Protein 1
Amino acid sequence: MTRRHARHIVFTVLVIAVFSAAAYALQETPTLQQITEVRIQAEEGDAAAQVTLGGWYFAGSGMPQDTDEGVRWWRQAAEQGHLPAQTGLAGRYLDGRGVAQDAAEAVRWYRMAAEQGDSEVLRWFQVTAEQGSVEAQLTLGGMYFAGRGVVRDEAAAAPWYRRAAEQGDAEALQWIRQMADQGLGAARVALGGMYFAGRGVPEDAVEAVRWYRMAAEQGDAEAQQILGGVYAAGRGVAQDAGEAVRWYRMAAEQGDAEAQLAFGTMYAAGRGVARDEVEAARWVRRAAEQGHASAQVKLGGMYEAGSGVLQDVAEAMVWYRLAARQRGGGEVEAWGGAEQGDAELAWLHREAGQGNAGAQQILGVMYTDGRVVARDEVEATRWYRRAAEQGDVMAQFSLGVAYAAGRGVAQDAGEAVAWYRRAAEQGHAVAQFTLGLSYDNGDGVAQNAGEAVVWYRRAAEQGDVMAQFTLGVAYADGRGVAQDEAEAVRWFRRAMAQPSLGGMYFADRGVAQDDVNTHMWLDLAAARSTGELQESVIRSRDTVAQWMTLNQIAEAQRLARESDAAPPREP
């Protein structure tokens, strides 16, 4: 399990812990009569009673603690299709709590829950499959192919089967071949990709082209775009620029951004088609408007040079900036490399040197990420500062992050807060949330829970999920606001309703991952829960602790103690 995946699970546990804290706190130890009644119902096959009885055994509530007996009752409920029992049992097999650790058995129970439509478990499978789990990839392929727990979509099944097949799974390869033989374009594209790369099957460019052609002739845009590239490069076929243009055009007219960029590039070079800079710009723009970073940079270059469009340096800057903001790797190629990339970089430096804040901020991003240029945090901070002093909100927030982490500058929490505040006052939601955390923790500013809530609320009202969740915690604890369980639930529900739940929590959000605060929140959640839930929270906290130093753990524990000791504060 990777750190990012573990953080996803950590947050899920934490939400459940805080959201359920009141219920657990109010739960009384069952009486002998209650235990007797629930046991009778459980033995008669009532799944809810079986889950309740299992939970009492896990917690040692009203009876001696017995995890084996707890697992036995949960299993009976899970086999009847009781969704919480299935996910709870899966979690125990995943962690080895009360049962021998067994990832395959965990996946089996998670699969049953996902096939009932549990969205959180489905996200778990997607994250796990992305990380390379063959079992998860097969599960997703089967779910989409059969329409179990998701809308039936054979085209969505094919890429998951392909990933598993590329790792050597014979069952997945059999499914891919079967779907391809039945005429599914996505499966034919997948099989073509496997033959080209030699993953899961012997490398064979000719066979790859055969499968791509079948899909392309069915009208599959991705296959048409790939076939255009095949003819342009002469791989598996004789090189033929005219044929490349033909296939690129088909895919581009269907809206494939990669094909639109390639088609525009062919027009710009006069390759396979009469040279036409205006037509080149038209197709590159269509790709750029879909968010294709390479196309955005190319269009920026066209505006800079006046190629196919009227020369417009300001418009060039807009497109360069859009491309540069697509952080996270994989887009270095967008800058063209060699002569084109060097020219664009020189242009950005010239603009930045003349005071263009947008160019300055872009250079800051590039030096921070080591994209196009060698990574240099000092140089990144220098450009961020110049843009921030001109009011660029992204640069202001980035400069605050640099001061908080001591990247490229001496660490200075007070200076970090000053820059967070400037960005927050311009409406930057993540800066608002981060400023709230600073007030909550007294980091770089006097601790003030009421002021923290002010900033959490501003970010939450803009839709920042982490701010919504944190504001819910504030209402649940009466920290910085009058305690209000109904308001806490309202904010938790807003956070949990967000479609991005699970993918972004405790992950990179433009700021350094903060294990100390994560550990602190889990400590607080553990103190607010009991039994099985508390056990899960503690295990998640201990997972986070594996990435921390002893000093960081001690600091997290200190913050948790101080938070619990602090009296509720009025706003």
Protein 2
Amino acid sequence: MPQNFVLLNTEMMHHISNILRQQKVLKYVTDIGSSLRMQMDISTLLNRVAAAACEALGFRYSALYLAGIDGLFHVQATSGIPVEEEIYLRQHPLSSDIVAFLIDEKYRMSNSYFISAESPLWQNELFSKHFVIIEDEQDVLPSPLPSQLWQTADLIAIPLMSAENSLLGFLTPDAPLDGLRPDVEMMASLELLANQAAIVIEGARLYEATKQSSEERAALIEIGRALFSPVALRDLHSVYETIYEQVRRVMPVDALFVARYYRADDKLSVDYIVDEGIVYPLNAYKVVPIWARKLLLKEYKAFSFATQEEYKAFALNDIAEESPDFIGSTRASESILFASVHFGEEVLGILSVQSYTPHVYTARHVEMLQEISIQAGIAITNARLYTELREAVQRAQESEQLKNHFLMTASHELRTPLTAIQGYLELLSIHGPILNEKDRTRFVANARRASEEVILLLGNVMDTSHLNQKEIALNLGAVQLHHALIPVLDIFEPTLVSQGRKVEVTVDDSFYVHADESRLRQVLLNVLSNALKYTPIGTNMIVSAERTNMYAMTKHIPSSAFTTLSQSSQNDAPFVVVSIRDWGNGIAPKDQEQLFTKFMRLPDAVKSIQRGSGLGLYLCRQLVEAMGGAIWVESTGVPREGATFLIALPEQPS
């Protein structure tokens, strides 16, 4: 057979093959174009493009790269590539430097690029490590030239260009079924497929962006609806749940937390935390981290981290060991967003969303989270204002009740001694000339005692008023405890004698306390007066004192009194504790804490014939705490076992 006939026949077969290939490519181009009308999700679309490169053009494998938000080109879809190799490719995205090697003009073929196995570029490890070589036997058609045979290290890169002629990504078909390297006609067919794929990918992205925008608007509307519902004012948790559900609509979220900042205490406390659908118990930072403070001080409005390594590098030496792990599981988050929650110029806290997948958040996600954080700020402010208003109304109602109770009590308590004074003065005025000296002296003493009772009652009221206005002044210094106690006992001497009582005093002369002497006497006077009023006639009392320290007192002192002391006292701080013991009916444990509140008289006291304003013990607590001490009562509440009032004051050397 003549040589020219063989060449002509080969050219004809090659021409026919190209026509058939182009027809097949056009079919797949049409199919890919129809994907846009079908509103196919972008992941399915990309897999379809990768498969078409193999099926339409006769390749065993293909990979499709697209530019990511991090500036790297990531594998988004593959066809035919084994699982292990696909994982490797996904773990090795292409940087701009690698892409620059790929699109070097020396490798251009048509409008694409072909890097042969013989290229010295493969000796560059920084380049070659981004790709895999799949050893595979191929069915090779007869070829006139060995240089046309496909080598396993050959690489084809077909650019995917946008309408603005920017690089969207690459299509990299591999291992042609015919075992031949590509020619210009093959490249033209691949470019035809790639151009249609780029148009469809751009259209799908535009559709996804439009859909995302619609979802974002819907999410904000839902959050706004929850925000202004009546329930939101009473239950912030319901608003946080809505925020979580709506954030999930617009961005990847594995975990979310809302932390509130209390500026007065410089405290950051978590209001809500959910991790993979599980709501976890709340917690608080013991120390506000530096990164959080930057948000709270408005140095930054938001932070975005693409990986756990980025976050660790940013927060290096700033994560205190005692700080809680806000995300409920022990798994470390990869992508992390933080945004400040604020209302107007006031920063109220922090909103964070986190994902266990790296590189998932875009600049739009950051913007969206900032918009949602504004909504959260409105919710927190509305709830706070509602709470403050409700508490103010409640306080006003309680104040009105207390005022009425006080006026009724004070009127009653003042009337009794004033009536006694008036009665004795009238007796002296009418019957004075005929009374003997003993009766006259008794009437005057009784009138004086009633006057002192009025003075004590009014003094307590005035001192309480001054305490409310923070006007009361203290003259603190070293006070000998025994010296302060004796004048108080002298005041009660007539009463003790008339009632057949005794007060046993065991107070060492060496005890000195840091106090205001006149105020200390006032406290002792009130406590001893109560002990005399509410215990049976004929029963005795014991006044004693002992030296102790803060640590020893913590075993017995109530939590309310301990909190006051612990704010300014160390464990080894020396104290003197004065005990006033009686054998009355005692005080039930449930009534002991409210005993020191304003206008409080226990039910048994109200029913008794003894008078009182309900201010004495309240005043005692305020004065003792102002002097750096504490006052409390110990009693089982069993009748005749009595009660012991304890007054702890800082010891001061004389």
Protein 3
Amino acid sequence: MNFFSELKRRNVLRMAGLYLVGAWLVVQVAGTVLPMFGAPEWLPRTIVVLLAIGFVPAVIFSWVFELTPQGLKRDEDVAPEQSITPRTGRRMDRMIIVVLVLALGYFAFDKFALTPRREAALVSSAVPNESKSVINAKSIAVLPFENLSEEKANAFFTEGVQDEILTHLARIADLKVISRTSVMQYKSDVARNLREIAQQLGVANVVEGSVQRSGNRVRVNAQLIDARNDAHLWAQTYDRDLADVFAIQSEIAKAIADQLQAKLSPNEKKAIEQPPTTDLAAFDLYSRARTILLTRTQSASNEQDVRQAIELLNEAVKRDPSFFDAYCQLAYAHEWFYAVGGFDHTPARLAQAEAALQAATRLRPDAGDAHLARAQYLYRGLRDYAGALAELETARRTLPNDARIFELTGYILRRYGQQEEGLRNLERAIELDPRNFFTLQQIALSYQYLGRYAEAIAAFDRALTIIPDNIDARIAGAQLEFFWKADTRPLHQTIDSILARGPGAIAPVADNWFLLALAERDPAAAERALVALGDNPCWGEDTINLSRSFGEGLLARMTKDEARARAAFAAARAEQETIVQAQPDYGPALCVLGLIDAALGRKEAAMEEGRRAIALVPMEKDVINGSRMIQYFAITAAWAGEKDLALQQLELGLRAPAASLALSYGVLKLHPFWNPAPRRSALRKNRRLPRAQRHKINRIECPLSAIR
């Protein structure tokens, strides 16, 4: 009798199969049940180790011993005519069938019952339940005032009056005051349900009012209402000379604080009484600029809007060189151009931001807004995160209700790799600014960095309750389904619905259309998307922006049109080289240039540029951009034919604290960045993927020899 026949006779193979199926079932059930009872994280791992160790003894036991009517006996002690191994084998077959049925039942239960519940729990955790929170009796929202002036051009003046009253109240630590970004959505020219508004903002009280400006006179009416019972707590009308408008704003703020029994410190009282400027024309210019900048954060970033705001602020400080608040806003606008919008990442633009900051600091060196402005400059301009955090801590003492402090703290902590703590600060910011569309998008981005796509989608859904027709948020939520599950259907449906609106509707999200077309291998749709793109990038992730010419080259590679691909990438290189020459030490620009050179077969240049980009933006200094340099260098190395280096960088990129869309499951599986896809062993290391998706990776064809 040969060895294999002996294994079958002694039921060793049956024992091995029964043990493996049973062990798998135990591990799955333990992974579901133990966390419900608060079991420590090491316990499920210990069970797996013990079951693995027990496999060999179980197999040896089935070889050595045989089950007889008299009990267990060594196999050599049982005469052949007394052996009942065939009967035992049939019993084991029935046991294996039972365990397999249980395993299949558990698999179906997990897929159709437990997984939807887990995803629903993630969604509910991402969207705070405001109705369950305790409303602070000293919480307040200052709603937009009604402009009763005959000249509608005075609307900005009215907004400025409301903004100053809000700003004064926000300096009082004993109050909770909602930021202007959230309250400005409740326009004064429509009927308001104050109780509903208060619930949406999470406050107990609201302030309404009106402003009428006529010649050199101004009339301001204000009233404080307890929105929980619609009780009018206080109301006052001020009819004075226009020059007294700033005094009126201070008086209203102090009267409201008094009605809410809020304690004012001497410094808070002094800050409330200090007028922003003595020049009403400068105040008008400032109010217009501030509204423009706030409105910009409620929509797609608009370069022209920020340019207009800068012009208005320059006029304001020209009229009043001591206008502190205008300098703070001017510094922010220049920083946006330099770092956020990325339109002018040059020393000249940074110098303009620094000049505005220095002017503000000279005027009020100890003001909280001066420290906040310096924190923003250090963060966006110099990437000095430690210095920015120190300035924010100082600013917090005199700006207790400023959501920007928590928002910026969240961004910095993300750069340090402290994703969870950064997320908590962003959630604190949204408590003070609950209708801030941009901050909700950033919360979604934080979840995305953590690879928690269900919660990211929930955050985008919440943003859509604020601006239901916002195309960017609609696209982002649908796009995450692609990145998360390699499912193009939600994105396809969303793109189709936008295209149905008319030929111009798709332009703001043409890059997403191009992504979809590439993933679905639809060259015709990709060509149409390129036309809709105009001169805009075809792909953008944080500071990585790939031009339209790059997209044309990518499409040509996909369709194997080598001549067109080379021409397109050559055009992309000329554009990118101009950017690099203007910003030679800007890592993201070099990273993109390296990717283009790899596409053109300039291997040595591509490797040098990619490595220099990594050196310029080390992960120790900037986790997010540092992660991007490594993650996109993996693509560069793959395109340059450096197979081992590509896999090494891919694994490093997958382990980076900030997950990249370029390394998401959907892109790795379907996008021509990875065409053919990289080795499946490297893909498995992406622990951010749900278990089911890691199993799917086994079905992706990804031979090492295919990487080029």
Protein 4
Amino acid sequence: MIPWTIVPYPDELWYSVCARWSARLGFSSVKAACRVLYGQPSTIPAVSVALHLDRIVANLPPGHTLDVDRIIDGHTLLPLYSPFLPPSRVHSLRMLMRGDDASTMHMQLGLSKRTIPAPEDLRYCPICVVEDRERYGEAYWHRLHQVPGLFLCPLHASTLMSSNISRMKIGRSKGFVTAETALLAPMLRSVTAPIAYFDLHMRLAKDVEWLFRYGASANDSQFFRSRYLALLIEHGLARPHGVLRLDAFLKVFTERFPPEFLAAVGCALHAQPKRTWPVRLAQKTEHGHHPMRHLLFMQLLDCSAEQFFAMPEPVGPFGPGPWPCLNPACADYRRPVISAPEKMTWRRGGEAATVVFSCACGFAYRRVGPDRGGERRFTMFGIVRSGPLWDAMLETLWHDTSVNLAAVAGRLNLSIDSTNYHAARLRLPFPCPGSRSTVSAGVLEARGMRPRGRSQINPIMRQRHRRAWSEAMTADASAGTAMLRKREPTAYNWLRKYDSVWFAEHSPHAQGQSPRRPGIDYAARDLELASLVADAAQELRDREPPKRITRHAISAILGRAELLSPPRLAQLPHTRAALTVAEESLVDVAVRRVWFATKRFHREGLVPTRPQLERAAQCYRPSQRALIEAHTAIDIALASFNAPGKIRQGNSISSS
């Protein structure tokens, strides 16, 4: 059993509690204290977290008031990290503090990456020291003062001071050191805080103090993503569909937080804007960012930690779900039974959205947002799929002679034109039996409201559109079809769809007003290109040094892209054959380069070695050295330097 008489003070670091316990019992060494406290003399005390808590609490004397959760929540730095970690990782960290194996604890906290380095020494607030001595008779280490990136005490707005107790030496030589022992030592060092940015440091310290005092539950990445996106959209730094306005965002961020301040708190920006941590946090809120980065991001959006974690779940452009079914024939009419949209698309650069909601009854409708009021959720902008229940209701109302057309449209929440359209789609009789309307089938057909064949075309409509088209052609005999279409769009569309034979006979093209351009004479073009290909190949062959004759090289000389198009070459057989003859293989160009190099050596009066000739002929690559023809050409070329009548003189040759 552990002899325990220590009561932890508010916000006291667990390391400080253990240090006061060790000093009160008068242990001669840190190993002796760890043997009693942890059961293992080799355990190194930790500053930010706690170790072996289950073992410690189980061995405390009866009547103690400590429990594991109280120690973790009130005397370690875990409450600062917990809100920004997934619940599974927070649970794992708590289990590591309970157990005997804490080897992965710092890695799971994200401290191993050292994105924000921890203070080198244990720190304190001078005013807190005075108040603690007056209240408790002794000073102690506050966990709030040991947070990485924090330079001010939020309770007194004073600069944190650095003691002579190095965090690196804890457990090696110093072991457990109380705040009273450290503060009575002669060596004290002060932390230099950039007072020019006092307000920024103070807001950061206030947010950290709130997290320690009130805490927040662990959250997944979607919790932060949805709230950050809502705040970014509210500040005009992101579009409603979630795309970050990168330039505006970086401008606001750099204006709010100077580089000197960011470097001081360990949150300096990357040289490349797209890889810097605020952009990654805004575009993809992933776990692994230090809590100080999250708190700075909240400051950018004019939101404190208390306000942020109190925010309700943001809603989309169409309000919170579930959404109602707007099928009047469905038993769930106007009831919120649709849990998620079927499809959502954004328009006008992400400023407006169109969504499709579908119900289990088969009815699907379209809405345009974002919403401006609560009643808009019961308004639809079009039917995507009607479904069997809706179709049956329309058919029943249509055949009811006691209900007129306006009443049918009202029951279905449609306009009269839309009601007529769906009635025509279901091939219902016109006009509506219960309506006094004189609407005719021809009018509906002209409006495109009824599927029909040519046998059902109203002759009155045909005569009207023919007359309009003919008058337009007579008024301007030089106008083409495009011009007439602009002047008479209704007649143009109707005649093309329902009277195509007459329209073809009475169009400007048919009357010869705009004669067609003669077609291409591919036979003549084929012979011409074949001759040009042969000339281009000869031009390439005469160039020095030799280059391989390819289809691309010939096309570049002639400026004719059709030489590279297989569909075009299919219409040019002679050109295709000329290209086949002109193109060189690797063997052909290798042999030609050998003889070109040989002639140059003869012209300069030099006798090359075999490697020199291979290098000059560009045949030193393995793919070309393996060519039998190239080897044969090199052998013949070397033999030409030993011909009778040639006398060797060192590296030169001369005639005898």
